[in-house]
Design goal:
Number of helices: 0
CATH topology of the largest domain: Jelly Rolls
Mean pLDDT: 94
CATH superfamily of the largest domain: Jelly Rolls
Radius of gyration: 17 Å
Number of domains: 2
Strand content: over 45%
Structural class: mainly beta
Order of helices and strands: EEEEEEEEEEEEEEEEEEEEE
Strand order of the largest sheet: 1-2-3-10-5-8-11
Number of strands: 21
Helix content: under 10%
Shape: globular
Distance between the termini: 30 Å
Low-confidence stretches: none
Length: 228
């Protein structure tokens, strides 16, 4: 992973981004970006444009205030999710207007095609919805999750209490990317600490929480990227 410290913004880049470039770590299937960002109070990302990307922001702690060229404006906090399909083009800003550091996971997923109509959505989920169970927050447009994106990909989140165990099955022709957001765990005899991640290909996993742990799982088809 890459790292960046701009003072007001400290980031861990799961894939090549900004000044971090590794030709062997550009993407994982349709997953292009996961940035683990710490944003200082009173700072943030000023208005900037995006095109042809499905962007999901998951708030880990603090507050995130969003505004965009579609006239959306809102503040989200721990466990909340926002989604923006950049499509043919949209501009937005993201700021921490609170008094404490904000931590977010910024996720970019390639769309199934170019040129979608820009969209924005958000969900202020109850924290208990992910307590000791996988909570499905993002699905394809024909799926059942509250947030729907233009790609065959699903996002689940989980808070697993210390000492508890849960399984994950990544089916044939599927792959997944697991982020240990908080806490520590043992997964198939592999120890993970906060901010670690695993790439999973057609595999069954058993997760044991060494300490109370917070996870995000992005599951997707095991295939190349198709943009047309």
């Amino acid at each position: 992973m890459g790292k960046s410290d701009l003072g007001w913004l400290q980031s861990i880049f799961h894939f090549s981004f900004a000044e971090y470039f590794n030709p062997l770590n550009i993407n994982f299937g349709a997953l292009r970006v996961i940035n683990d960002d710490l944003i200082a109070p009173g700072t943030g990302f000023d208005t900037h444009p995006h095109e042809d990307m499905e962007i999901v922001s998951y708030v880990v702690e603090g507050e995130l205030t969003h505004a965009d060229s579609m006239k959306n404006e809102s503040t989200l906090s721990r466990g909340h999710v926002q989604y923006m399909s950049a499509g043919t083009g949209v501009s937005h800003s993201e700021h921490n207007l609170g008094k404490t550091v904000t931590r977010i996971l910024q996720i970019w997923i390639y769309p199934d095609r170019l040129g979608h109509t820009p969209q924005y959505g958000e969900f202020k989920f109850d924290w208990e919805s992910r307590h000791n169970r996988w909570f499905h927050i993002v699905s394809p447009t024909n799926g059942e999750a509250p947030v729907k994106i233009h790609q065959d990909a699903n996002i689940h989140v989980l808070q697993l209490v210390e000492g508890n165990t849960i399984d994950v099955t990544v089916s044939e022709n599927r792959q997944a990317y697991l982020v240990q957001i908080e806490g520590s765990s043992v997964i198939n005899e592999q120890e993970l600490e906060a901010r670690d991640a695993l790439e999973i290909l057609e595999e069954e996993l058993t997760i044991n929480a060494k300490t109370t742990s917070h996870f995000l799982l992005i599951e997707m088809r095991k295939a190349g990227i198709l943009l047309k």
